[in-house]
């Protein structure tokens, strides 16, 4: 269990949570904030939408532990909000609700539309609200209510709020940091794209930023051995393009540098094909033969995002004739593909992916030492869907053996 502190509706609230507890359950079960409704639990229906650091977020696919020190506003915290008050009156006037189950999330999303798109047309409102599903009203009353508030605010000279967000993208905790009046601008919640003045721009991939102090939700270790001396393996790892060629499904965009790379990796999970386009920052230490890769990526087709942290160290074996590579892998996966992100399954799949990488690595290292010739045969792609079934079969077999003592 992890002790999690959030600033919820203007009050600091603390409670213990398991790493897998999503924010919706955390608020409902530990703080009795039941206005946040849980529907699909896959980030699709929008019923659980609330506000994190000023931006709407699906709380059913957001881990509570990842929001430590965040500013969270639920529907209960919008009682005195100006826009929410206008929307409540419009919803009543336009008969925009029936059973009410979708209404809390609908109100949060509608408030975002009013603040972010003050000149929105009916079509734009429908598109912006399409992430919230309603089984009762057919959306007609909801759209009329939002349009009427937009019209009222325009007539009154009320435009979008000065702190309304200017772009769409994944929502993180923001970790607002200082909150005292003396802190000035630092007291405002840090946005996903914020950075200190004069700092090198933070790399991002389709709105997924690389954050140096980011902590993975799940971490595990792997190791493998290649039949080549450490100095040769270390030199090879310094060639980013060569390493990328060894990783099934990976391809680079542009020319990588020693410290930064952009590219994509294709992952197939049964009928689903995801192309994660992303970036990574790379650091290496020649003295210890260790390295660190931190990256982020997004697949727009499935609206899934991932962050990853890989650290590795090379150690000699067999009197320096072989090299053992010890790898630590940390990751966070959100969106539709998160349903395939259970840590045990990911570890099994990662093991097979590393196995293919090692096979390609051995072929490449052998080829570089052979004086050229034809390109070595490489494993170019892995279908994770096939791996899922093999993993399940292996686990069932192990379970069967444990029962019968075999």
From TrEMBL:
Annotated PANTHER family: OXIDOREDUCTASE WITH IRON-SULFUR SUBUNIT, XANTHINE DEHYDROGENASE IRON-SULFUR-BINDING SUBUNIT XDHC-RELATED
Stretch list, region Disordered: 156-216
Organism: Ancylobacter novellus (strain ATCC 8093 / DSM 506 / JCM 20403 / CCM 1077 / IAM 12100 / NBRC 12443 / NCIMB 10456)
Domain (2Fe-2S ferredoxin-type) ranges: 2-78
Pfam families recorded: COXG, Fer2, Fer2_2
Biased composition regions of type Low complexity, renumbered to the chain: 176-203
Compositionally biased spans, kind Basic and acidic residues: 156-166
GO molecular function: 2 iron, 2 sulfur cluster binding; metal ion binding; oxidoreductase activity
Lineage: Bacteria, Pseudomonadati, Pseudomonadota, Alphaproteobacteria, Hyphomicrobiales
PROSITE patterns: 2FE2S_FER_1 (PS00197), 2FE2S_FER_2 (PS51085)
Name of the protein in question: (2Fe-2S)-binding domain protein
UniProt entry keywords in alphabetical sequence: 2Fe-2S, Iron, Iron-sulfur, Metal-binding, Oxidoreductase
């Amino acid at each position: 269990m992890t002790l999690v502190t959030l600033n919820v509706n203007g009050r600091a609230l603390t409670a213990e949570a398991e790493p897998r507890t999503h924010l919706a359950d955390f608020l409902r079960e530990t703080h009795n904030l039941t206005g946040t409704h849980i529907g699909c639990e896959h980030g699709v229906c929008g019923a659980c939408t609330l506000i994190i650091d000023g931006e709407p977020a699906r709380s059913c696919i957001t881990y509570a532990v990842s929001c430590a020190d965040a500013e969270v506003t639920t529907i209960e915290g919008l009682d005195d909000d100006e826009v929410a008050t206008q929307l409540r009156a419009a919803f009543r006037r336009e008969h925009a609700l029936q059973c009410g189950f979708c209404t809390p999330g609908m109100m949060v999303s509608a408030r975002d539309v009013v603040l972010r798109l003050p000149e929105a047309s009916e079509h734009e409102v429908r598109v912006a609200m399409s992430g919230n599903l309603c089984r009762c009203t057919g959306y007609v009353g909801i759209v009329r209510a939002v349009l009427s508030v937009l019209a009222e605010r325009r007539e009154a000279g009320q435009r979008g709020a000065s702190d309304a967000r200017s772009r769409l993208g994944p929502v993180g905790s923001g970790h607002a940091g200082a909150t005292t009046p003396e802190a000035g601008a630092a007291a405002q919640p840090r946005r996903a794209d914020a950075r200190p003045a004069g700092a090198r721009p933070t790399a991002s991939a389709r709105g997924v930023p690389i954050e140096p102090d980011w902590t993975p939700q799940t971490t595990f270790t792997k190791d493998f051995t290649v039949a080549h001396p450490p100095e040769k393996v270390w030199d090879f790892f310094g060639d980013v393009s060569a390493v990328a060629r060894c990783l099934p499904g990976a391809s680079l965009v542009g020319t990588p540098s020693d410290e930064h790379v952009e590219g994509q990796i294709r992952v197939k999970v049964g009928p689903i094909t995801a192309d994660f386009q992303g970036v990574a920052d790379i650091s290496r230490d020649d003295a210890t033969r260790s390295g660190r890769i931190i990256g982020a990526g997004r697949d727009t087709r499935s609206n899934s995002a991932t962050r990853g942290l890989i650290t590795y160290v090379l150690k000699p074996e067999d009197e320096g004739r072989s090299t053992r590579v010890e790898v630590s892998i940390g990751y966070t996966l959100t969106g539709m593909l998160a349903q395939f992100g259970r840590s045990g399954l990911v570890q099994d799949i990662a093991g097979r992916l590393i196995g293919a990488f090692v096979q390609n690595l051995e072929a490449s290292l052998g080829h570089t030492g052979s004086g050229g010739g034809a390109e070595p045969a490489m494993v170019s792609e892995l279908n994770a869907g096939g791996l899922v079934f093999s993993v399940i079969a292996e686990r069932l077999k192990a379970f069967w053996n444990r029962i019968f003592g075999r």
